[in-house]
Amino acid sequence: MLKKIEAIIREDKLNDIKDALSEVGIKGMNISEVRGRGRQGGITLSGRSGTYQVDLLPKLQLNIILSEHNVDKTVEAIVQAGSTGRAGDGLIFIYPVEEVIRIRTGERGHDAVMYPGDIDEKAKKK
Amino acid sequence: MQGINTGDTAWILVCCSLVLLMTPGLAFFYGGMVRKKNLLSTLTLSYVFMALIGVQWLLYGYSLAFGHDIGGFIGGLNYLGFNNVGITPSPDYASTIPHQVFASFQMMFAVITPALITGAFVERVRFKSFLLFSLLWATLVYDPLCHWVWGKGGWLAVRGLLDFAGGTVVHISAGFSALAFAMVIGPRRGFPKVPMEPNNIPYTVLGTGLLWVGWFGFNAGSALSANGVAGGALLATNTSAAGAALVWILLSWLDGRPSLLGMVTGMVVGLAAVTPASGFVTPLAALFIGMVAAPISYYAIRFRINRQLDESLDVWACHGLASTWGMIATGLFATTAANPGGANGLFYGNAAQLPIQLLGVVVTMVFAFGVTYILAKVLDMSIGLRVNHMEEEVGLDISGHGERAYS
Question: Given B195, B255, B314, which is nearest A50 (Cβ)?
């Protein structure tokens, strides 16, 4: 069973999270720039005369497709590296994925998300 | 008639180029402050005047402004199509440079003035109505006003109004026209609830740089000669911009953080304020003019926002009011030590100058505001000033011009 992790994170936590994921063997991902709001609310920006409020903040969304048995370790890495303890750290969503096809080879399912040195190979070595 | 002076001619040719460059500068100054979907539209609103007035001024604008005086109110038709505007000096203006150079230098002022007004109605104006308004405004407001203040025999000129480079003709007229137009066209959809974030503050900063440099041509060039008055005007211009920017940084810091958008706004305010005074005052007076202009415009913007009036890019607060102060300050600080061809102000023992300055200010405000309000209202009721809701939501770049700034 394949899953998709969508993690909304702080822009300034990207490098920490990437490093932590790399550590557990999650290398593949893509990132989109998003804007959103939650408990953190907005920010105050300077205008020409005084300040004004912006209620949508820039965040990053990490998209990772992986096998179900690797989800817990991955989520743990993101939470550990991405948390500051203040409102605005973000949210993680997990969805089922129907199918994955690697365009280069036509591989499907678990094979399509595997790569050398990934989280499963690391687990085997241990 | 004296002969042509090559130094003067060279200098005014350079100034002509500097003032022309202010219109692209203004385009980017404004362009940076609108939303991304209206960037090209906003650039168009300024740039198009290089085309529109480039032709209008040649065909009849110059003649209405600087032609043979008719009753103090308008120039005659003797310079239609630059007829009789040749390579020798004009009998009435700038006796040491070719008439064509004088007329071209004046053209650049006629180009940028209506471009200033566009800050009032960006992001929602219908292009066709805007073009028609602009041509009418140039003909019915700019050309007559220019004649009153700078034309030989103009009724404010003969009363001794001091306006060195366009406090009334350019900045108060643009500022109060902007106010009138904004009141007629109404706010952008979502204003003031939805924050209208600037799409590219670096463009605004770049535009300010071009404006400041161009303003040397605008003010120092208005000496119409490469002489001491030009030098004094250049120094006054620089000093006022610097002083206003420093105060603006301080004001924005006290309200939060020292904002760059605030700093460059302060620079433009200082430049607009000193424009009418630049050739008549000492550098220290210019410093005072700039430093006082900053809080006037700063709190005028606040007042405008609190009144929920969407005069979007604050032409009224930044140009109209700063130059109003500049015109009054000219009546206080003008000294014949700075310009023997000028007059003394109140602080130099001449109490008669200030009332003339006030007259010029009030006449310009009422005339520009009134004619613009009527023009805008008539156009609004006939062909419509605004784009429709969907066009506004999509943005004027796509809906109005079929282009987008970034692909």
Answer: B255
